[in-house]
Amino acid sequence: MKDRTISRCMTSRHILLRNASQLLTLSADNTNPRTKEGMRDLGIIERGNVWIKDGHISAVGVEDERVHEAETIIDCTGKVVMPGFVDPHTHLVFAGSRENELAMKLKGHSYMEIQQAGGGILSTVRKTREATNEVLVEEALKRLDTMLLHGTTTIEAKSGYGLEPITELRMLEVIRDLGKQHPIEIVPTFMGAHALPPEFHGKREEFIQSMIGIMHTISQEKLAEFCDVFCETGAFTLAESETILNAAKANGLGLKIHADEIENLGGSTLAAKMMAISAEHLVKTSEMDIRHMAESGVIGVLLPGTPYSLMMKEYADARKMIDMGMPVALATDLNPNCWTESMQLIISMACYHMKMMPAEAIVASTINAAHAINRAKTVGSIEVGKKADIIILDVPNYEHIPYHFGVNLVNTVIKNGELVAGGQ
Ligand code: NIG
Ligand code: FE
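Above: the input record for the complex with fe (iii) ion. Below: its predicted structure, written as tokens.
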């Protein structure tokens, strides 16, 4: 994209995207998340056109004679047009950064060792507690701008760097305010059980009860749609995770879980048992866990940026998961340990490190990602009636997206029918 400006001004109400070399509609029966061969069906229309009217998609197809009706025509010759990326797992709101940990990792220290030495999540918690809402908003807005420029139009964002009622609630309020200020739609998740803060050392049960104690307010004030928990040695046990998720369910929140990231404690099978909407990470997930998840339709949200930034040898076994019928989505996991806003990079990693086919990685970053945050009725595909969240990429075909990596291939971003980035 040459002009990296983000404009929030209104554009024409009637836009025609014309003559895309490949229009990836992702249209099909999208009632349920895609599995198996459904994950390879991009619904491609060659020389495709999309009509946008009043923020929504009003027609999809090939060239027709109504061209003169458009107020704005964008020529997409030689380009790919597809739904905006959906990023269903981010820790968008945080203060500070942790680049100092890279040298520690290079010296062989593990993620949990760094955390035990006061770094990792806990160092971000200290900085986040100290930061004002204004600072948190300002920092997060920069990340949202970068996401939008890289083609992401809907995201999920978690709390979890407060680990005390006041800062957890503040984080969720910041997420709500960000959604009002920025074109990207943000789906909020409460993740009070992200780590045990030092002041609760030896008082695990008390901490868990304090987080459960604010769930009622969170749900009443609609500050979150989902609850997530970090089920891991050094974070929360399987039994604790179940307690937290049961309380979340009782408060009407949807369920998510960080499972099998470093060790397998049984988190993904718990997700299947509790009918969670998704389980995330899944690097150490066993074949039996995959079977349980496939049977209950839990979406595996895979985050290849995390093993990459943790310098792990292993990545989630996406190939096996897809072949065994599990619906798979992709996300950045954007956080101070794994800092990328780019779903394009994640798609590339998914192909090169997790053996996903390019088409599967695109389904996982659009319609399946939308399912993972309960937004599949409104975004994730280019179908009549859906929000006009559409991106135009400077590539001749979709296979170019993972293949040509490390640069921004997005030329134009349209959110809710408005031209919000590029396209000049
Ligand atoms: O999903 N694993 C737990 N939480 C985040 C990392 C948070 C952090 O390191 O700040 C994750 O990878
Ligand atoms: Fe995460």
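Notes for the reader.
Residues 1-10 have pLDDT under 50 and may be disordered.
The first helix runs from residue 100 to 106.
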